[in-house]
């Protein structure tokens, strides 16, 4: 089969008006606007509007009450269950049965509820909920999120989380976005599409990486030996989390932006992270000559989130909050396309045979 592309690598599956990262890492643009011109100028709620509606319009509504499923001990798992439950809880219709306006409204409701759920869960079961009147003092979606979590947040932490949410909001046809588009292509409801994306995002080679990055930084902080640490990881044949990318053949522009944010905000682990980054890039150049393995978004995300006092176990749920924006935009775009996604496999299994020929038949 001449059109066989293992893992769909390099296959262009759709035309999009949302975003597609430049391979050379020059920039990342959301509907044509560079993230460097968004971060610090508008808030994440406006970026949700830009991605989904193509303009800085109404953005996200306030959150509604939401179901609280079992507490599994993993907030990423809990938010995925809560989002899934929104369909029966709110009576959401399946995509094929509703118009674009309704899909957009459902996306906004589910997105903002996912954020509220994560903030509430981050606050923990032990603390009383922040009074609604204090949450309502917030001027932006991210400030609301931080108030629901912390009560009276440090404004610099709000700034850091807003920057992170914008940088991580959208990134073309990555694995979790592809997943949401597959679910949307078959007409599943918005909550099912987003919940599918949350599951895929949890993988350590995708959205689960920054937690591991922070552990790396902490270990180097303890040992004071970034070079020894890097060689140890590579000698064991393991991967340095926060480096390498399937699309970029240069530094990820989000890493560049978040490094600058971490520097400007005076992140406490900035210096150790920079030393580890230098050692990692040298180590990777030496061990993998001919390959471009540069810093990806996860590395500096970990430093920025750490500055905002976000614990490592919250990193994947935080990524989920950011990426609901991109997923929402893609679900709507896929719905408008109205064609199911169904690639094919090349079958290389046994030739036709009888059940008697299969091992274990008796
Ligand atoms: N550390 C060490 N070696 C690496 C790394 C790394 N971070 N990344 C790639 N390599 C090596 C691989 O071992 C492989 O070497 P080999 O051919 O000698 O076996 C070679 O570079 C190519 O690696 P692939 O896995 O083929 O590259 P791919 O494009 O498939 O992977 C990925 C991209 C998954 C991001 C990879 O670079 C990786 O595992 N990085 C660490 C995890 C990480 O940071 N994930 C976050 C990604 S960003 C995001 O999802 C938002």
TrEMBL record:
Lineage: superkingdom: Bacteria
Concerning InterPro entries, the annotation shows: Citrate_synth-like_lrg_a-sub, Citrate_synth-like_sm_a-sub, Citrate_synthase, Citrate_synthase_sf
- Which Enzyme Commission number(s) are listed? 2.3.3.16
The pathway to which it is assigned is: Carbohydrate metabolism; tricarboxylic acid cycle
Name of one Pfam family that matches:
Citrate_synt
Q: What is this protein called?
A: citrate synthase (unknown stereospecificity)
Q: Which organism is it from?
A: Paractinoplanes durhamensis
């Amino acid at each position: 089969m001449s059109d066989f592309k293992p893992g769909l690598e390099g296959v262009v599956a759709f035309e999009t008006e949302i975003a597609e990262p430049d391979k050379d890492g020059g920039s990342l643009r959301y509907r044509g606007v560079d993230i460097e011109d968004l971060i610090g100028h508008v808030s994440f709620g406006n970026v949700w509007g830009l991605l989904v509606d193509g303009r800085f319009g109404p953005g996200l509504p306030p959150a509604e009450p939401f179901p609280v499923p079992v507490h599994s001990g993993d907030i990423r798992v809990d938010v995925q269950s809560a989002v899934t439950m929104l369909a029966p809880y709110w009576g959401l219709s399946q995509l094929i049965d509703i118009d674009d306006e309704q899909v957009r409204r459902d996306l906004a409701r589910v997105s903002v509820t996912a954020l509220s759920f994560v903030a509430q869960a981050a606050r923990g079961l032990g603390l009383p909920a922040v009074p609604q009147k204090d949450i309502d003092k917030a001027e932006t979606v991210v400030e609301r999120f931080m108030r629901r979590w912390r009560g009276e947040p440090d404004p610099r932490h709000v700034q850091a989380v807003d920057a992170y949410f914008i940088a991580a909001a959208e990134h073309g046809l990555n694995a979790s976005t592809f997943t949401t588009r597959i679910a949307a292509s078959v007409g599943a409801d918005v909550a099912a599409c987003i919940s599918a994306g949350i599951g895929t995002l949890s993988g350590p080679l995708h959205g689960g990486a920054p937690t591991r990055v922070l552990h790396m930084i902490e270990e180097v902080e303890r040992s004071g030996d970034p070079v020894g640490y890097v060689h140890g990881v590579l000698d064991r044949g393991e991967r340095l989390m926060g480096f390498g990318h399937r699309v970029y053949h240069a530094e990820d522009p989000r890493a560049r932006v978040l490094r600058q944010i971490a520097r400007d905000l005076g992140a406490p682990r900035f210096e150790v992270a920079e030393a580890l980054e230098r050692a990692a890039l040298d180590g990777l150049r030496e061990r993998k000559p001919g390959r471009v393995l540069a810093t990806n978004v996860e590395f500096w995300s970990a430093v920025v989130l750490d500055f905002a006092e976000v614990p490592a176990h919250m990193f994947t749920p935080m990524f989920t909050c950011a990426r609901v924006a991109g997923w929402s935009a893609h679900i709507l775009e896929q719905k408008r396309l109205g064609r199911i996604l169904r690639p094919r496999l090349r079958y290389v299994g046994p030739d036709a045979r009888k059940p008697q020929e299969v091992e274990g038949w008796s």
